[in-house]
UniProtKB/TrEMBL annotation:
It comes from Paenibacillus albiflavus. It is found in: Cell membrane. Belongs to the ABC-3 integral membrane protein family. Its main location: membrane. Gene3D superfamilies: ABC transporter involved in vitamin B12 uptake, BtuC. The chain crosses the membrane at residues 6-26, 31-50, 56-74, 86-106, 141-160, 172-196, 202-221, 228-248, 254-272. SUPFAM superfamilies: ABC transporter involved in vitamin B12 uptake, BtuC. PANTHER family: ABC-TRANSPORTER METAL-BINDING PROTEIN, METAL TRANSPORT SYSTEM MEMBRANE PROTEIN CT_070-RELATED. One of its GO terms (biological process) is response to zinc ion. This is Metal ABC transporter permease. Keywords: Cell membrane, Membrane, Transmembrane, Transmembrane helix, Transport. GO terms for cellular component: ATP-binding cassette (ABC) transporter complex. It is a multi-pass membrane protein. InterPro entries: ABC_BtuC-like (IPR037294), ABC_TroCD (IPR001626).
Amino acid sequence: MNDLWIILTGIVVSCACSLVGCFLVLRKMSMIGDAISHAVLPGIVIAFLISGSRDSFIMLIGASIIGLLTVFLIQTFKQSGVQGDAAIGVVFTALFAVGVVLVSLYTRDIDLDLDCVLYGEIAYIPWNTLVIGGMDLGPMAIWQVGSVFLLSILVIALFFKQFKLCSFDAAMAAAVGIPVVLFHYVLMGLVSLTTVASFESVGAILVVGMLIVPASTAYLLTERLGAMIGISMIISVLSSVLGYYTAYILDASIAGSMMSVAGILFVLAVLFSPSQGIIVRMIGQKKKSTTAASLS
């Protein structure tokens, strides 16, 4: 049963990340996830200092607030003339450094389990369960990430046309009266919640990969947003299942193996994508050369 919970957690986490990741890839904002995943450290520490508890929900709130602050600061700096990549780099390194300082000053003798925050350990998920009225309802991580995943599905389904137009042509969206800035922050809020909720399972570092890799793979395989989201979900499921059994065989990191499988699927898409694959283009060029030679 523990194996099933681990695989299911991997599927829920990767699908939640790939859903919002598709919009990040389309907007060329993939590294926002990296910024949020590192910048929320001070939020985790401050939430602990205020509450005196390591409860996951309290940590989620504190980290999410800092995540939204990260997005706001990045956007503010970009509007002030700072280049986008520079704004991301400045904000996330500065906030991450503040978190490190807070840890060194106030939590030296307290185990905040920061290794779990950074690297995650999905193998321990089945032992941290949600119990209500004496009934064990399964791993806390699935309920936590699953709730955020359902929220993302609901919001994106309700405003799919708006998100789609804002992602492909923000100027056109603004021209037809869509509040582009509002939908930008709604999306960034979903990214922040998804990133933070996934910490316990796969850690901050691998969350970035799950945000980017399945969505980028799907981007190579289709030109339709709906299909891109569906394909990214399929890739997420395959990565989770195959990654778990790879880790089992190799006795390696489960989350790391899941991301490795996702990386392999991305490389295959780069090589064999019907429209953009390197091998496919080489074959096409060879056929054109052969046809041209035969005509001459």
